[in-house]
Structure to design on (238 residues):
């Protein structure tokens, strides 16, 4: 597995280019779970203006992958096609552009991915209007589907895989931890690195017809021991 640390360089989107509607909290969420009511990908306004392109296995994404946060900031990432890659936005935890605390009463923050004009659905980054009840998702897993190198879809590998911490909760079908467990640089407290992170895997075919296989390393395909190892790899302080 390749791990890439990206020091945060966020682009702020002008108000007229933002989506008109922010995803709302799902009133039917189960106990201990949180969710957002997401639009379908074809209903979401794109922000990054990336051109269509046929990708080749073993090459960095160019045009890059666009990580959109709260529909008003984004950053560009360049994972290698068909490498199972962990991307980390260093310094993003508690960055006021990333982890806002005044969005609404629920304190929801959300993220999504864009590639060559296509987008994923939304995923919840954090939930809780007060610091005392706020939970953070330390990482997600995204699967990018290619057909002859062209992006067909970007899907999340949902599930609270490997999340066996007593304090953890399932937030929008993803493992989350309370703020008290997030590492705070100023106090040197907390055991979990809560910077924004995403595993990226691939399936389908590249522009030369080569089959992509790295999606087979996604969390839902592993036994629990391996799942916990991957959770730790995404959560540990580096």
């Amino acid at each position: 597995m390749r791990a890439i640390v990206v020091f945060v360089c966020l682009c702020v989107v002008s108000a007229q280019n933002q989506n008109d509607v922010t995803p709302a909290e799902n009133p039917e969420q189960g106990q201990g779970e949180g969710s957002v009511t997401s639009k379908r990908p074809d209903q979401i306004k794109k922000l990054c203006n990336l051109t269509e392109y046929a990708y080749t296995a073993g090459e960095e994404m160019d045009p890059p992958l666009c990580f959109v946060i709260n529909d008003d900031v984004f950053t560009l990432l360049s994972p290698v096609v068909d490498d199972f890659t962990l991307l980390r936005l260093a310094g993003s935890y508690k960055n006021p552009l990333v982890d806002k605390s005044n969005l609404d009463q629920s304190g929801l923050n959300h993220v999504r991915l864009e590639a060559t004009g296509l987008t994923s659905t939304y995923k919840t980054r954090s939930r809780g209007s007060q610091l005392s009840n706020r939970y953070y998702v330390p990482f997600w897993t995204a699967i990018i589907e290619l057909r002859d190198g062209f992006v067909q879809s970007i899907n999340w590998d949902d599930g609270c895989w490997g999340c066996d911490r007593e304090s953890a909760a399932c937030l929008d079908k993803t493992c989350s931890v309370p703020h008290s467990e997030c590492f705070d640089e100023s106090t040197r407290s907390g055991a979990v690195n809560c910077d924004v992170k995403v595993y990226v895997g691939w399936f389908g075919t590249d522009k030369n017809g080569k089959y992509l296989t790295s999606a087979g390393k996604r969390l839902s395909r592993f036994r629990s021991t391996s799942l916990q190892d991957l959770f730790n790899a995404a959560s540990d302080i580096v």
User: Anything to note?
Assistant: The first strand starts at residue 2 and ends at 7. Confidence is low (pLDDT under 50) at residues 15-37. The radius of gyration is 17 Å. DSSP finds one helix and 18 strands in the chain.
